[in-house]
Task: structure prediction
Amino acid sequence: MRLQHGNTYKRMRKPSRNVLLAKKNAVLLLTLVSGIVLFALKTVGAVLWGVKFIANHVFKVVVWIFGLPLYRGFKTVEAKFGKLQEYGQGQFGENFSRNVLFYGGLVVLSMFVATANLKARELRPEEVGRNSGMYTLLISQSDYELYIEESIPAADAAAQNAQMPERALAGIGVQSSVEPTGQLPYTEDTTIVSGNGDSVLKPDLPATDITPKPRDSIVTYVVQNGDTISEVAELFNVSTNTILWENKLGPRDFIKPGQNLVILPVTGVLHTISRGDTLNAIATRYRAKPEDILEVNKLADASELVIGAKVVVPDGIPPAPARPAPAPSTGLADLSSIFKPAPSAVGTFNWPTTAKHITQYFRGWRHTGIDIGNKTGQPVYAAEDGVVTTSGWNAGGYGYYIIIDHGNGIQTLYAHNSKLGVTKGDRVKKGGVIAAVGSTGRSTGPHVHFEVRVNGNRANPLDYF
Result:
């Protein structure tokens, strides 16, 4: 090719074929390498995405199979522990603090008895009487010695008699007109208990059969001087409760000479058959066996039971008497007619009674409120406006008690009342009369047990006055 530049022509050189081929090969190689790298990167990216996808799904499966049950179990345990903690801070703490001395004393007594039993050992016949407190007292404070001699054969009695020194009874302070004969006053099978030469001989009584004979009828026993219920029960081979039940006696009642006691033939109770009674019903009522009832009363079968007849129930136990429900309290009108509402202070709780003598302070779970001592029958006031959620008897120790809901999670409790003046659902005003001071439930004297509860947790009532 020629280029014109002015009047001058200049010839340009064309690149060689080898150079063009080398450039083409370089471009192809670069394209190939780039494709390989791009493919590798895409492959790695796909593998990583697959790993991530699998890892996510595996994690979800692991969490679903193992994590959720563990979480639910943890929340369940946490909820139960919260209720247990609430109970521990509430009624349990109060009961424990009130009874710790009683149960502590029982534990100490039990340990003392157990220790004494561990130290017990077998007592040999020759040691009888030597381990008693009376024996130790006599030995330490006097010259007397108590001992027991075993029976000796008659052949050895003469030898002992020959070696015994003769002495008068007056030498030991005993006045007697009879001089000792020098012969031993016992035989081969006689046991002697002696002290300083004085003897108490075992009487030679003929053998008798002391096995009690069974009775088949009810008898009446006249109490003698010195009789006790347990001795009479042993005399007739029945239990003490059998005599108490049949004679309408309490465990602390006494019997006196001349008193008549009805004694059943066997341990048990006496039942009067009424309309509708069956053999199985009687046995079930007294926790006895039907066949024993037939045997003791000499009945062939249940058809011989007659209305009005009395049958002995062997080994029977009378059912516990029904416990009467607490008497209903009087209404608010009765208390309102006697007491006027207390003057209320703005912004604070009203003091719950007329007195301000605190006999016990708030101590957390050990004592969940404050005790305010006052006379029985004095008014109890509502601390704030609210709705009565509980009004009645509490068997756990509060006695007659009232709970008022004041909203915002705040409640107040008034316990040990002698009378209740409101019922569940009543709306009360701050300072209104709701009850009368008493000492019902587990109480040591007339007072108001006052609690403040915030979202179910006990708080110090003195922070709200």
Observations:
- The chain has a mean pLDDT of 75.
